[in-house]
Amino acid sequence: MSFANTVEPVSIELFKTRLAFERLVANHSRLNGIDPRKLPLFRILRDLQRTEEVPANIINGVLEVLSVCNYGVHGEEVSETQLAFVRESAAGLYDALQNALRAKA
């Protein structure tokens, strides 16, 4: 798989981060009768904020992380500052989002 060597390790790291959030939100959506394939992740997250299921500060942080991840996944250059932000905040935001979703389940 020589083509796999053309993907930067940082892009893979950012993809894994994005995928973790996507799976968490998709599982919550399915449990609540929402087909996550029919709505973009950003829309589902904003809906969770609008309905006050998840506090705005958590949603905004998650959206910032996902925005950086999307740049990297699609081959755009991600600055060291952006990468540090994702590395420092993604795990805590994931846990906060997971806890907020569990509290409303």
- What integer is the average pLDDT? 92
> Unreliable stretches, pLDDT < 50, 5 or more residues?
none
Order of helices and strands: HHHH
Please report the number of helical segments: 4
Shape: globular
What Rg is obtained from the alpha carbons, in whole angstroms? 14 Å
Q: How widely separated are the two ends?
A: 42 Å
Helix content: over 70%
Total beta-strand segments? 0
In percent, how much strand structure appears in the residues? under 5%
Whole-number count of domains:
1
Largest sheet: none
Structural class: mainly alpha
General description of the model:
The model has no long low-confidence stretch (mean pLDDT 92). The protein has one domain. The chain is globular and about 45 Å long. It is an all-alpha fold. 71% of the residues lie in helices and 0% in strands. It has helices spanning 9-31, 41-50, 56-73, 80-103. The protein is built from 4 helices and no strands.
Brief rundown of the structure:
The chain has 105 residues and is mainly α.
How are the SSEs ordered, and which strands pair?
Elements: H1 9-31, H2 41-50, H3 56-73, H4 80-103
Helix pairs in contact: 1-3, 1-4, 3-4
Task: For this entry, give a set of tags.
4 helices, 105 residues, mainly alpha
